């Protein structure tokens, strides 16, 4: 097993944390006034979830949060990234606020502060209220951006005095591409490039929410995008062109509007609805940090249905798209069949620095982790974390401004379209009894953090 005390020393003040999301762990979907989410409807549709699971109970964090807080305290992290469930606060998406829903997060934030753990709140981690999907078309509707801003304002009004850092959106690329483009995630629409309005409206919602948060006195604000290197399959014009388009759609489309105030391609901007130029002024709000979720690179070439073996976030690419994703050869695979490429993390950070220069705020690695099926003796997860942290330290030594690192995830959880088949947790969850059992990786990280504090 890798020695946790042998990790190189990270800077003083570096923020160590773990991450979860409300829909994946809370359960209690019908309790204390919570309304349905689009994902609740999606999971109820036969064939949508690989193992037929739902998130009605998930890990029952809503009732067991004190037990989970004890795990956080024992782990020794300085921060906990969690999300607020929009339908728990506004069951209809807007209108009447559900005070009981906010009470839950109020108690959690107070307890985190008492334990010396900084709360890092994500306002949107994919759980759009079902009435917003059914009534307004979800993120295809411009009105949803304003509903989201109202929701952000209400949460900040209640929690803003105690939350250390705020994240507006988590991975709008996945929501757009998987939820509206390919139909593999909620809300299950298969619009391909006609899904692009969902990207623009999420970004607009980010900008409006950022304004609302600033008006409430929030001092540390960012958003989180998934990023990874895009490698062309070959030097041919067809493969490099396909890789460039994929890079635009998964990386640049979601980074350049908030960081540069423009879309990466004029033709792409012309496909988007509304007064785009004016909206971009709202989207490009000043950020205090930029969240990066890193998992793996993408090897991309011209589409070839006979060879296309790769995936985007676990979802196979349909042949009608103008690019294809291939499996990266010669790499260990995780339990989710993702390639283990630790050096892709500093490559991602270098690319962001080179593209955006001084427009790029300090970075937080808001997710990095891996799924493996082992019960508690998870040496492969330890090796994964060790390798990625060493690569991250290399990036810091090069002068890249990274201020924190969050492991995905504290707990095994409901992993979207995969149901309960993929286990990302530092803590094993028995889904029959809901018993929590720390894995070896939990103990490894605990010792690593103790060694960091000792210097």
From TrEMBL:
GO terms for cellular component: cytosol. PROSITE patterns: GLYCOSYL_HYDROL_F1_2. One of its GO terms (biological process) is cellulose catabolic process. It catalyses: Hydrolysis of terminal, non-reducing beta-D-glucosyl residues with release of beta-D-glucose. It holds the Pfam family Glyco_hydro_1. Its EC number is 3.2.1.21. SUPFAM superfamilies: (Trans)glycosidases. PANTHER family: GLYCOSYL HYDROLASE, LP05116P. This is Beta-glucosidase. It comes from Streptomyces boncukensis. The lineage of its organism: Bacteria, Bacillati, Actinomycetota, Actinomycetes, Kitasatosporales.
